[in-house]
Structure formats: C-alpha cells, structure tokens
Write a structure and sequence with these properties.
The chain is an alpha+beta fold and 276 residues long. Helices cover 26% and strands 28% of the residues. The protein contains four helices and ten strands; from the N terminus they run H-E-E-E-E-H-E-E-E-E-E-E-H-H. Strand 7 and strand 8 form a beta hairpin. It is rod-shaped.
Length: 276
C-alpha cells in the first residue's frame, strides 16, 4: 500500500508541476504579445508629373452639321525599328454636332511609361460620307520624358515634328503644362445631279454608189526607130524647133523683113528707070 501511495503522490506532483509550468508559459507569452507590435510602412510610388494635354477641334463647312460623325486616331511610333508595323494605333476619338471637340490626353499619358523620346501622330479617319471632303493632314509631335532621382517621370519637352503652315496645329506650354492642339476641317460639296441622257443620234443614210468612170482610151504608142506614123508634121516641127526662151511673135518679124525687101526692090527698079 505504501508503494501505491508513493506512486500516486509522484504522479500528482508531476501533474501539478506541469500545470504550473504551462500556466507560467502562457502568462509569459501573453505578456510578450502585448509588447510585440507590427508596424506596416507602405512604399510610396513616385508621383509622375506627366503634365500634357492632347485636344482637337473639328470644323465642318459647306452645310449644316446634322447626324454626321467624324473619327480621329492617335498613332505611336513602334519601339522596335524591326517591327513590321512602324506606327501603331493607340487611341481613338469621335465628334458630332453636339460635341465638336475631343480630348485624348488620357490615352496619350498611358503610353509614357518610361523615360525616353516618344513620337506620335494624330489624323482623321477617312470616312465615306457622300459629298464630304475629309481632312487628309497628319500632325506629328514628339514627347521627351525624363526620370527624377526619386524615380518620378516628368515631361521634359514637347515639340512638333514639323512647322505647320497655319495655326491649325500648335504645341504650347503654360505653367509647366504642355498642350498639343490640332484642328481638322471638313468641307461638304453637294454632288451635281445626273444630267439627262442625250438621245442617241440617228444613223446617217448610206451614200449613193458613185458611177464607174469610162475607161480611158489607150494612148497612141510611138513607132519604133525613125517612123513618123501617127505624128502630124506640125507636131514634128514643133518638136524639132529648139527652145530659145524668146517668146516674141516671129510672124511680125517675117512681115517686116518682107516689107523691107519689097522696098529695096522698088528702089532698085526706080533707079534703073532713071538711068535709062
């Protein structure tokens, strides 16, 4: 019996010792929990200063603006020169008679993700409204983005790719904010009505067939050698006569010669009579 009591007492002692130790451990941990405090410090993102605006205006001339809708697109030069498409569409905007202006600033800023030089182009989508001449101009501009020491991006410079001939495209800066503004002009010209089809011309009457001309007689063939058959004496004389170029009337000269000879003969006869 004594042995059993000793074992039971030992077990009770162990239980009590374990309970006191566990309680002390729990109390210790509870006290330490009050002392441990977790502090969350959020990492602040750099404040990007992308102070740039891209706005546009549509001018519609030639008629009252009714239900026509015009669209515009923002293009960005590809980052990789080897890329097949050198210009990628990164933004769009629509205008109508109730709102003739558009703002593509947000779509532009989404492309400025790192420092460097970005090139953009803005133009009108060529539609198919009858009688409307769409603006075919494309305005190009470049944006230079720099990075500060804290990693924040900011606009260093904005400039047009070429000087516009008028004020319809401009890049301005005011209080550190760059503004890119473009104006597009569409002109409506009413298409002329189709003219009436002219009547087909009447077929001309066929001309009468001309009468066959009588066949000419064969010319007389000249004889061989010295034969004069078929040739008159007058023709032969005229052929034999030499051409001197003197066109004066030879009959007049012959008559004068005869008259002169007759006078000489008369004079001679008269002299003989006087001598006899």
């Amino acid at each position: 019996m004594n042995k059993k009591y000793k074992i039971t007492a030992l077990l009770l002692t162990l239980v009590l010792m374990f309970g006191v130790s566990a309680q002390a451990t729990i109390a210790y941990l509870t006290d330490r929990t009050d002392e441990i405090k977790n502090t969350f410090v959020p990492v602040k993102s750099p404040a990007h200063q992308l102070d740039i605006e891209l706005v546009g205006e549509k001018v519609f001339e030639g008629k009252t603006w009714e239900d026509e809708v015009f669209s515009f697109k923002l293009l960005k030069e590809a980052d990789d020169p080897a890329q097949e498409e050198q210009w990628i569409q990164v933004g769009t905007a629509d205008v109508d008679k109730d709102n003739s202006s558009f703002d593509m600033s947000g779509q532009l800023k989404q492309q400025l993700t790192d420092e460097g030089t970005y090139r953009f182009g803005i133009s009108e989508v060529q539609g198919s409204i009858k009688g409307v001449e769409y603006d075919k101009r494309e305005y190009g501009f470049a944006v230079i983005v720099s990075k500060a020491q804290d990693g924040a991006l900011h606009i260093e410079s904005v400039y047009p790719e070429y000087e516009a001939e008028d004020d319809e495209f401009a890049v301005t800066s005011l209080d550190g904010v760059y503004t890119v503004k473009a104006e597009f002009v569409n002109i409506y010209e009413e298409e002329p009505s189709d003219p009436s089809q002219p009547s087909e011309p009447t077929d001309p009457s066929e001309p009468s067939q001309p009468t066959d001309p009588s066949e000419p007689t064969d010319p007389t063939k000249p004889g061989d050698g010295d034969s004069t058959e078929g040739t008159s004496s007058t023709d032969r004389d005229s052929d034999d006569a030499s051409k001197t170029g003197d066109e004066m009337n030879i009959a007049l000269w012959i008559a004068l010669m005869i008259a002169s000879g007759t006078m000489i003969v008369v004079v001679l006869i008269d002299r003989r009579r006087r001598r006899a």
